[in-house]
Batch of 3 targets.
Target 1
Amino acid sequence: MEALFQLSARELVQRLRAGTVSARAVIEAHLARIDALEPDIQAWAWLDRGQALAAATEADAVRASGATLGPLHGLPVGVKDIIDTADMPTEYGTPIHKGRRPQADATIVERLRSAGAIILGKTVTSEHAVYVAGPTRNPHALDRTPGGSSSGSAAAVAAFMVPVALSTQTNGSTIRPASFCGVVGYKPSLGLLPRTGILKQSSLLDHPGIITRSTADAAFVVEAIGGEDPLDEQSLGLSTAGLVEATSPINGRPRLAFIRSPYWLRTDPTTRAGLEALVESLDGAIDIVDLPPAFDAAADILSMIMAAGIAQTYREDFDKARPLMADVLVRIIEDGQRVSATAFLDAWAARDTLRCLFDQIIAPYDAALTPSAIGVAPLRSDGTGDPIFASLWTLLGVPAISLPLLQGAHGLPLGVQLVSGTRQDRRLLSTAAWLERARPVSAGTQ
């Protein structure tokens, strides 16, 4: 029999709702796993065992009372430390906000709790969620980075410390760590998950995301907590209904494109060979599609928009505590301060043009297959890795998911990214689930 910490999110909730296992037993199993591995991996910025066990005891009492159970009843979840939690610190990975205690839960956390989930703690983030390596190590190789900025979330799920963790992405902070850690990273369409109470970098680019060990688990959780956020100007009232159904095996073979992207030559030879072999193995069921030259500027467009947003958001921290900021963050803020209003509006107009153009290109397909990262996780001493293969899709706001389908250099995991058109999350998840079934893998590290 599998240990409780090895079970998927969906299987855990099924057993919890049926009463074949208690919420307390589930939480104790995951806490024991954390106790065993956390000294090496360092995925958690805050962990409150007593609080988690008390929440589990309450969940068991609710079930015993016969009350209606939430769709995520008893499910342990980790929350990235830029997402507000009223009962735990949210410190943004920086000494500037050491000890910060929010007054309320972020909307996404509130929805998790309302659905019955139990928040185990806060996972480590890079400083201010930018390119600054934190203490977290990759569970597959402790000398390697787990990626950033959702480093703790990806490492915790990969190490079976928790089945689900919240992430965010303004450039590549969900897709890249998922690829490096050999787990599933799902960045839904812009506006599908609520953002109120999450540290803002760029309101035009910030995407909440989720780290799991399967597409089905990602769909399961996002369906329960997604939907309109009245306080978020990017929320479009998108429904999450049908995401779980989309992952069902009854769905037919998807129509796939292979898009190398403008940055294909940045990949290492092992990555290129692995992706080309995967495409070949699909027996001609995939078309090779080249993006027109207009997409070559996507990463520069994103960088300008993101830098301007960071300069605006972190203005107060920059003015009051600049010596406590990492050099890379200081440079981004200074770059953002130099962006004129005209240049910013030009960049956003270019983004809209690219988005419309991509929707035309992807229209005949359910999803496009493309790299998740340039290669496997680099050494921790070399930083958190290059996010370039997520940049285009974050800029466009389209749904994307990284699946741990390949093995790269040094035997380390390597993700494959799927993307779909604007607001086509059901198509994306259906395709991802099909590809998982066609190329089964064992995610995570035990």
Note: Residues 1-446 form a domain with the Amidase signature (AS) enzymes fold (CATH 3.90.1300.10).
Target 2
Amino acid sequence: MNYSQTVDYLYSRLPMFTRVGASAFKKDLDNTIALCNALDNPQNKYKTIHIGGTNGKGSTSHMLAAILQKAGYKTGLYTSPHLKDFRERIRVNGKMVSKSFVTNFVKTQKELISKIEPSFFEVTVGMAFSYFEQEKVDVAVIEVGLGGRLDSTNIIHPDLSVITNISLDHTNMLGNTFGEIAFEKAGIIKTNTPAVIGERHPETDPVFIKKAKEQHASLIFAEDDLKATNVSKKSSTLKLDIIQVDQPLLKGLHLDLTGTYQLKNILTVIEAVQQLRKIGYQIADEATYQALKNVKKLTGLQGRWQTLSKNPLVICDTGHNKAGITEVIQNINQIPYENLHMVIGMVKDKDISAVLALLPKNANYYFCQPQLERALPANELAEQAANYHLKGKTFNTVEAALANAKSKASNKDLIFVGGSTFVVAEII
């Protein structure tokens, strides 16, 4: 098989959560353990950092990987899902895994895959761990796929565990309350391993504190220790100072991820750096400054409050649940425009009502559907949206919806594209 045939095999033959939803989620680690045992447990041959949470874990993973890279560490980065190319999931110093490695891995492990019958995600985790071993990385930043306790990535023994925040998402698999979801996310906190929690919440704090105590793990809440001040925003950067216990820590930081929600993520990242330094990582302030200015260039991150074009201004964002869309709306409200055009698509297993209730009523809507089985048909989305007084037209593809929005918008208007990671993936 060539590369494209190999990826088609992975997509079509293996249960894939992004395509079919909950039926692809394996509720134990048995397959991953069996797969990695057969691969001689590559994940134990380099340092790792584990990053989970409901929102922001992707941005946090990329920022931390960029900092480690600038600090001189050969850095692996495993994230999901990808937007355009499967290989985005597996990077070393920002460079995607080679097509030949993907092809050879599947070719040599095809018998094992047939025997174990793993999911798509389980195979990609094993592939990433093996690639990082082959490339002899110093450290790998590993983003949790879904949840934490039963996520395939949770066979690593990291130097640091990071949980960005908790909100209601994937409730059909992780639980219906903040506390239940926090229990699943807390599963990445390991024995005698420091843990950083990005944001406090009265329902989740006790869960994390209890888990850390059970594991004899030190626990710190980033928002207790650090604050962002003197924040200003330009079109291409956020500028800010970070203070620690009212004392300047990092002044004049520039961040090339401009969504205001990154102000929460950056505190989590800097706290993670502080904790890594305590256990022996050599990370100079200059590495932090240089990395945060160039996260997208260093890691290939896309889709986070990303400007696609100007005149009219077109912005996309992968926020896809209540908390994520809340942040999106806050960012929209900071932009001057004459008319707002919303290109929106969603998948079936999200809390659609909670998202629709947040969307602005004084906008022109272009309801669409990404090209995957989990997609909510555009006409169904439009019907539900009408209950919230959101009106617009329906389109069978994201591309057609965006083209129509552009044809209707003036140079002083704003077009936003989102509602789902998979909507963004089709237009960047």
Note: The radius of gyration is 21 Å.
Target 3
Amino acid sequence: MDSYDIKYAWRATPLLGSVALLVMYTEAMLMPSLPKIQAEFNVTPADASWILTIYLISGTISAAIFGNLGDIYGKKRVLSLVMLAYAIAVTLTGYAPNFETLLLSRAIQGLGMAMFPLAFSLIREEFPPHMVPTAQGVVSAMFGVGIIIALPVGAYIAQNYGWRATYHTATPIAVLLTFLIMIYIRESRYRTPRSIDFVGIGLFATMAASFLLAISKGPDWGWLSPRITSLLALSAVSAAVFLIHELTTDNPFIPRDIFNRNVIAATIAILIVAYAFQMNSQNLSYLFQMPPPYGYGLTVLQTGLYMLPPAVVQIIVAPISGRLMWRLGAKKIATIGVVFAVIGYQLAAAHLYSGVWTLISYVTLGFIGLTLLNVSLINLLTFSVPRQRLGAATGLNTVFRNFGSAIAPTVAGTVLTNFNTYVYYNTPAGPIYFSVPAKEAYVINIDIATSMFIITLLPILFSKEVLGGNATPK
């Protein structure tokens, strides 16, 4: 029978949770500064978008690769190396002398996404089972804490001291956290010595990079342009060859024994949760900033501040849901999360123009559902695979989360662009016309997310309970 150190678990939880806080703090501070970065380096908006695209591509590939390496060489060792690289990249970004160096440092910074599967795996491996859901809830809550700190603090620092100063504040945090994890976090006790599937890694990287690049650049380059069609074809071919290779090789990059109905349910559902989160942010950004009567005419800073209540709710709900999960079960919490998300999103769609606080209250209700889903899905996953495979399983989960985050802006942006209305302002030179999203655009985006929530109920209901009642986790 496994023995656990409860005191160690309580000490380690805030450290591992701070990993999520650090990454969200750093990334959320970057968003409002993109126009200033574009102006400083004298690049086009299309060029500036690479700052986000290259991070997403690098992070998606890194999450899968380093999650697997954690299973082989030890999750603490790999996490420490990833965090060291991340700290160096954050420092380099703040001092980047040119745009090319900035993109290189952002690519290295993408390694930060690999911290999540490694941190979740260490919690599942080294913590007493009854503490795992609560600890996973604390880590999930740190996503919200990072956003809450970053929005006002990042906006203030960027406005008064420049965008580079925001990275200078992140550097000492990254260095300190790396040091503390190296000193205080214990190495995982479960490993799977095996050879590295370099062919599988190459095929996976090609598939993921070409798909994410096509999805990210499709609106700018044109969906029928030769570049986009070539990238999508490359992604499809790579995916097919990757699948054949993984099914036939002796040591596949993604171990075949991790796949079961729970892993499939958690993977599909997390893509939908990520999609809904990103879509909601884009919807609200447009609605809040469009001129009345088509929106609320808010500034960028006001928009960010109005998004704080959902983040605060995430901080409160995530640990509570973790504590309830051992009693109610991950499936039941996930199902309740779907119900909250559907009700909250549909009420928001019905009250788009009923006032900011009315709308935010319903959005917050939907975010309760997203938070319940986030915490329940990671527990459904980590309690459903052998502990020596946790890095691979959680890495794959992060990959699909990123796919959902990448698809959402493209779909939501297309809807907001195609369902529009024209407004005009009278000027001495005559009326000036411009288009704004129509109400139908916001409703369609919400309805798409709602339909996806309902669809995800199917794999959740067919999953096997691993917590609560008489369930016996692996």
Note: The two ends are 12 Å apart (CA to CA).
